[in-house]
Specification:
Number of strands of chain B: 0
Number of helices of chain A: 4
Distance between the termini of chain B: 53 Å
Shape of chain A: flat
Chains: A mainly alpha, B mainly alpha, C mainly alpha
Number of strands of chain A: 0
Strand content of chain A: under 5%
Largest interface: A-B, 43 and 46 residues
Structural class of chain B: mainly alpha
Radius of gyration of chain B: 18 Å
Helix content of chain B: over 70%
Oligomer: heterotrimer
Strand content of chain B: under 5%
Radius of gyration of chain A: 17 Å
Largest sheet of chain A: none
Shape of chain B: elongated
Structural class of chain A: mainly alpha
Order of helices and strands of chain A: HHHH
């Protein structure tokens, strides 16, 4: 019962975050919304595991929590440098690109 | 008797978590600019995740499931501020200026 | 376990020329405790205790310790074992602060007028090491209503949602507590 309530609440929150991801207006709004969406996805997977009585779902939630973080960092890096390999604002590499 | 009390506490934690999750998402829609949305998004989410996962662990009893829930919580608590910092740093260095209430006072020194 | 730690340590010695390396005793201790922590984590996450599966777990832990030592990232920052115990009271205090601040931010979001007064402020961090500054910056970010935009030269650029949140950072209590956790570095 409580898990059904939690599922509905998380889905509502995810829908609101998705609206912000659609509205923008800047790309950082979208990244922020998608990151928040990802955190709620972790919660959704966990609560679905309890709802279905399958605690193995928690392993997936654990992985998703980590992938969500790596994905956010990767997107930010890609937006900023259009290149995954760069670490800093290095003028030498700027010219050779 | 004990089970009953644990169930009530678990209910309370999960409901508080749900409340914060929806408030955080609502703030994401209501607040006016990117910098203020960061407060609502990453941060109220962290509180929501903490309450919901602790609430679940009351239901799970003391087992490996509890350990996994607490591990998810630990990961969220370590990764969330890092992602927020990366986002804030990226948008600040891209020249997106926050809307401030009074320019002459900030940045203020302690 | 004792046998395993000496092997990656030997690999690290060859890998660390010209860099300021920790004392070998520290290195063995870190590699050993990393192996133990990894294996305990593995046991907790897997939930399987047959001999074959546990052997695979031990092998993967050893592989990870070897790679970590070879990459030369097993320093005090990647593995801050020196502040394990003093951090516990700090976490309890931090959770309390997060709760108080979360209630404040919730009130702001839910009130119809939306009474925000966003501002930027610059605070000085008194931590000596970069690790201490990272802990301070991340603690500020974790507390609702404030987040760190960037860290430079011991200064933190902080964005605050309301005047109260800004005042909370400016009291410097969190700064003092993080410095205490960091200890004499």
């Amino acid at each position: 019962m409580i898990f059904a309530v939690a599922t509905i609440a998380v889905v509502i929150a995810m829908a609101l975050a998705l609206v912000r991801a659609f509205l923008g207006p800047t790309v950082y709004d979208r990244v922020l919304a998608v990151n928040s969406f990802g955190t709620k996805t972790v919660l959704l997977i966990a609560v679905l595991g309890f709802l279905a009585g399958r605690p193995e779902f928690l392993d997936i939630a654990l992985l998703y929590a980590l992938i969500n973080f790596v994905g956010t960092i990767a997107i930010l890096k890609f937006i900023r440098y259009a290149d995954m390999g760069r670490a800093t604002d290095d003028p030498v590499r700027e010219e050779t690109r | 008797m004990m089970d009953w009390a644990v169930d009530i506490v678990g209910w309370a934690f999960i409901l508080i978590g749900c409340f914060f999750a929806i408030v955080g998402a609502l703030g994401l829609l209501r607040l006016p600019d990117v910098y203020t949305r960061v407060h609502s998004a990453g941060v109220v989410d962290t509180v929501a995740a903490a309450f919901m996962l602790i609430g679940f662990s009351f239901y799970a009893g003391f087992s490996l499931v509890t350990v996994k829930l607490l591990l998810i919580l630990a990961f969220i608590f370590f990764t969330s501020p890092t992602a927020t910092n990366a986002l804030a740093n990226a948008m600040y260095s891209q020249g997106i200026k926050p809307a401030l209430v009074d320019e002459e006072e900030s940045p203020s020194k302690p | 376990m004792a046998k395993t730690s000496s092997q990656p340590d030997a690999a690290a010695q060859g890998n660390q020329e010209g860099r300021q390396s920790p004392r070998p005793v520290d290195h063995v201790g870190r590699a050993l405790s990393l192996a133990v922590i990894l294996f305990v984590t593995w046991l907790l996450l897997s939930g399987h205790y047959q001999a074959f599966v546990v052997t695979l777990g031990v092998l993967s832990c050893l592989a990870i310790v070897f790679i970590t030592v070879r990459m030369d990232v097993l320093d005090h920052e990647a593995f801050p074992i020196h502040l394990t115990w003093s951090a516990v009271p700090y976490w309890i205090w931090l959770f309390k602060e997060i709760w108080i601040a979360a209630v404040d931010v919730t009130k702001v979001i839910l009130s119809p007028r939306l009474p925000i007064s966003p501002r930027m402020l610059q605070v000085t961090s008194t931590q000596k090491s970069e690790l201490g500054q990272v802990i301070y910056a991340n603690s500020i970010t974790l507390t609702p209503g404030t987040f760190t935009i960037r860290v430079f030269d011991g200064q933190l650029l902080v964005h605050a949602l309301t005047q109260e949140a800004a005042d909370g950072v400016l009291t410097g209590e969190m700064d003092r507590r993080v410095t205490k956790v960091e200890g004499p570095a």
